[in-house]
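not sure who needs this but someone in the group chat was asking about Ribosomal large subunit pseudouridine synthase A from Serratia ficaria so here u go. i didnt clean anything up, its just raw.
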Amino acid sequence: MSTIFDSFIAPPCHDQIEILYQDAHLALINKPAGLLSLSGKNPQNLDSVHHRLVQIFPGCTLVHRLDFGTSGLMVIARNKAINAALCRQFSQRTVTKVYSALLCGHLADNEGVIDAAIAKDPALFPLMSICALRGKPARSRYRVVERFYHEPAEGRLLPLTRVRLTPETGRTHQLRIHCQQLGHPIWGCDLYGGRLPPGTERTPRLMLHASELHFVHPISEEWVKAQHASPF
């Protein structure tokens, strides 16, 4: 068994967590890009969504995570029973998650499905890989919202496609690696080719935002359909 050593040190995140809704059972937040969901083992990576929120909601736990560079909606459980109920919805795939993203280049098709198994490889950490033999099933849907050109400071026109991404499974880095597999990495993605096309090198962030989250409130049993517009 290979030992995984994580040498990543997160730069300071000065942006605040936006609390969009709260009750006695859960909270909905907008996570800023550049903030860890959970504190790392390295004491220099103490700052995180959980570290900040436990000061406000003692005993709260994360039901799911967003990558360090991803912004957007997260649901936070305020006690263990709520956490278990929400985790059950995630594991049964009854939760709908929708993301907004900017992809490098112009996609040929207006919509489609990416079906490609994803595997962990300690030798490549933190990268995941597409592997039909060792990977776990992973499926994502995409729909084009618009195709346009961005003009960076250097003056070179950068073709981009704004898409709506809906993951049907919840693998680590799923949307990032699936978009790379599509041939159009997410703009600003340092792990999966989103800083390789000319004009993308100085992108300030990963252009991926969790824009919608639909689930059933464990207590009221009513549908919660949270939305938060993309900042880019």
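also The mean pLDDT is 94. if thats useful
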